[in-house]
Write a sequence for this structure.
């Protein structure tokens, strides 16, 4: 027996729609700016940013895929494209013959170092500057709460 759907109230629907529109518009603009400013795709930028935030600029393949919430096949294609362009290398894991590390190359590190200052300025201009510190603090609390809730839910 199917449960009756728990339809959203008009207020809940408005909040959801507004959140989705904001997210899509913001990510779309930031993605286009990254591409125009650095020649990297938003996916390139994300992978390099996550790799270079770790010590040594390296991460296990599956840990990186989980961190950015991508399926294994999407990460494989992305890594292949980035390897072809010299931004990352793939290294075998000595502890696990099936595992691999993804490593930012010197060219990849330079690419993210060049792109990051411009990217953060766009983040500031398009997002941070629109909100007060109190609103940013509230948004961080809300985001953390939703993330914790998601962690407790089955995928």
């Amino acid at each position: 027996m199917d449960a009756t759907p728990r339809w959203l109230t008009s207020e809940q629907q408005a909040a959801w729609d507004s959140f989705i529109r904001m997210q899509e518009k913001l990510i779309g603009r930031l993605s286009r700016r990254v591409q125009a400013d650095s020649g990297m795709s938003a996916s390139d930028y994300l992978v390099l940013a996550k790799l270079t935030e770790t010590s040594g600029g390296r991460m296990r393949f599956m840990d990186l895929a989980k961190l950015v919430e991508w399926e294994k096949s999407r990460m494989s294609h992305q890594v292949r494209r980035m390897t072809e362009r010299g931004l990352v290398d793939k290294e075998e894991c000595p502890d696990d013959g099936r595992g691999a590390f993804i490593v930012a190359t010197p060219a990849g590190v330079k690419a993210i170092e060049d792109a990051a200052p411009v990217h953060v300025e766009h983040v500031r201009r398009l997002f941070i500057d629109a909100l007060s510190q109190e609103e940013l603090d509230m948004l961080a609390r809300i985001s953390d709460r939703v993330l914790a809730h998601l962690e407790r839910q089955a995928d």
User: Anything to note?
Assistant: The domain at 26-152 is CATH 1.10.10.10 (Arc Repressor Mutant, subunit A). The chain is about 65% helix and 10% strand. The longest helix spans residues 10-38. Helices lie at 10-38, 42-52, 61-67, 72-84, 106-126, 133-152.
